[in-house]
Specification:
single chain, alpha/beta, Aspartate Aminotransferase, domain 1, Aspartate Aminotransferase, domain 2, 2 domains, seven-stranded mixed sheet, four-stranded mixed sheet, 15 strands, 16% strand, binds pyridoxal-5'-phosphate
Length: 438
Amino acid sequence: MLDVKTNSLEEFWMPFTDNRGFKQAPRLITGAAGVYMTDHKGGTVIDGSSGLFCSPAGHCHPRIIEAVHAAMQEMTYVSPFGTGHPMSFALAQEVARLTPETINHVFFVNSGSEAIDTALKIAMAYHYARGERRTRFVSRERAYHGVNIGGVSLSGLVNNRRAFPGTMPDVVHMRHTWTEEELFVPGQRATGADRAEDLKRFIDNYGAETIAAVFVEPVAGSTGTLPPPKGYLERLRQICDEYGLLLVFDDVICGFGRVGGNFSADAFGVVPDMITMAKALTNGSIPMGAVAVRDDIYETVTDSAAMGGIELFHGYTYSGHPAACAAGLASLGIYREEGLFARAAEMSPYFEEAILTLADHPMVKDIRTIGMMAGVELHAHEKPGKRGTLAQIEMFWGGLHVKFTGDTGIVAPMFVAERAHIDEIVGKFRKALDTLPQ
Ligand SMILES: Cc1ncc(COP(=O)(O)O)c(C=O)c1O
């Protein structure tokens, strides 16, 4: 066990972290169970963001631990290239049970970022198999699609792109959908749907035949919870259908009941051509992601290759790793048997009401909510992001973990949370705001 007094924190280069600040004043988690974690000073921290939106069933679920342990006793590794093991097929079938009817083929990866790279490649391979060479992609301002070069190219968050000028060319960004016209309105707002017309403008400008796919997070998550305006996703779907573009829903956060239904296709009644997922696929316990694709995309790619040959020259050493598959099977089993998506849907009105009570705080600029997720945006103070960083630290030492992006806290309770836990999260959030410099 690391002892912060005697061990060096220097060697580990922490991701998306103020390394110098953190190492001066570390915040370590040394244990977790259910909705609570323990910090290295012995304090109790309630997890208000399900880790990073990963763990709807709570930390250290015994069934997942046992399933992974049992799988590891049978096999610790199997090459997924040309061989397989039963659990990967079983998990793909379980995922396909949750996806829309037309989407039943599942490619396993190890993260959301890899899911995005994989979806980019499948989109190109699909058009290539149809005899077209489409290289352009459409994304959106404020989008987060992970950190691999594909995802960074799609990124609409400038800080995630600035230091990496060598990204994919030919990516264009639609406007984001947030407007100042409606603040503190829960769920899908009425304004902003017209921004779907940006896609039509790109088609007019570049030609549909150059555009392979459109990537959107149905609810933009990492930027601070931007639910789609009413009619927006429907209009994107309509334009994609009219011009033969693939529509990819990045459900890395939105999937597995977070915003309602199984995936956001259910929540919003719009069916994409591909769904990227990760995080809650294993309840966050083992790294794993997936891309689920429409059946005819799989068939077009596989049928276009010569019989006996590899159809898609893509895959990872750890695609469908036995430990991840065991964790995935156990997690989906828990979600189903404990009815966690239904429980989330039942709890979300209570959560919405509770989180909106923060609207009267003078530091709060807007609150957006959908399902079991909310973005509490603070007025920037001195410079963008400063107040958010201070708030996150204050909350941690006040016993609450919330993920912040810039000045927006993204609250996403676990689906196993009780009303009292939600009250605790909101109460600690408010208390931290009260303590911050005005
Ligand atoms: C919508 C979305 N896509 C992709 C990713 C990247 O996932 P990962 O961090 O597992 O690579 C994230 C991570 O938060 C995400 O929110």
